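Q: Could you predict the 3D structure of Endolytic murein transglycosylase?
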Amino acid sequence: MDRDDEPTSGWKSIYGNKVNGEEDKSPGTNETAAATELSRFSHATRSAAPLRANAPVEPTSRTEARTTSAPQVRRRKPRVLLWSFLIALGIVLSVAGGALFYLWNGLRPAPASASPVKITISSGMRAKNVAELLELNGLIRSAFLFSGWLKVEGEGSRFQAGEYELTPGMTRDEIVAKLNTGDIVAAATIRFTIPEGFTVQQIAARMVEAAKLDKAKFLEAAGKADLWTGSLWAKAVPTDKDLRYPLEGYLFPETYEMKRGSTETDIINRMLSELDHKLDQLPEDWQSVLEERGLTVHQLLTIASLVEREVVVDEERPIVSSVIQNRLRIKMPLQIDATIQYLLDKQKERLLEEDLKVESPYNTYLNAGLPPGPIASPSLKSIEAALYPEQTDYLYYVTKKDGTNTHLFAVTYKQHQKNIQQSEKNVKPE
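A: Sure. Here are the predicted structure tokens for Endolytic murein transglycosylase:
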């Protein structure tokens, strides 16, 4: 239903009332209505639709216009990230500095000292254990860091065993160089010579003079097979009750240098190891030759000892060896004077007839074949001569007695008698 105070047609402007295109002329009415409509329109517009980004907003009043037009002030945040970064950086630098100081301090030379320190590096000792030994003796500051440094530098595998004299304050490079080159302390040693042809009795007496050893203890050790660890061939010594000294012929004649304080057993084993070393110098076929001839190493050394005691000139050793071989082949007694001399307490310049009748397995005048064992320590040349004798038919020999230390050889006994007569003519009158 239409109201009486509103027009039934036309439209109403916010600036004034118009009906059918005519303006309302009522005083004050248009202004009031326009303000009211403007306010409603502005409120409705703000409520009905959200503001678009960057769209200008029309203030509804002077107060609102002042509020929305004032610039917003952004609050400044604390510099937390910067301070966190600086603190973390300080911690990292402190840790790194501490680590560097630890490395520098641990690897720098130990406090210097004028007094040298002696350490002993055992054979096969690992670099880690060497470092621990160095730290224990105050030669380095840290075994852990020193071991690590050795790995980095590729050192430690060439350290030589022995006793070293090092001074606190030496640098790492100086210590390593000394250990690599084996610059060890020269130990107090004893030096002695065992001449070729010496017997066990004579060797024992020489040890009393050279090493202040006990002769009885030396001979006792030379008779105990369980103490012989220096030679593989010594383990094959026969257990023959006729042997005067089981190691006769096995103690190789040589010049030795050993640590002062070495025991009788130490020296015996050193001589035995030298025998094995010398046998290794023989031609490669020596054991095959020995087997072909039906001889053992013990018999080889026995023949070599006979050659050693009978011959002075090297050229004659294979010839005398051939005489021994020829007599053994026909089972003829060897009749070697040196075997009789071995039985006597003192060497004689000339054997008597009664000496040749001494009852003993070593008496080669009464017994055919080889004696039970060697009668002296043979040289390598005598061993070679026993292994490779000259090919001859000789069965006899006699000393020329002309001062040349050579012999006259014979195949028959008649020729041998002539050689004896010739030998006697060579004797120079006193």
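Q: Anything worth pointing out?
A: Residues 1-31, 43-58, 60-65 have pLDDT under 50 and may be disordered.
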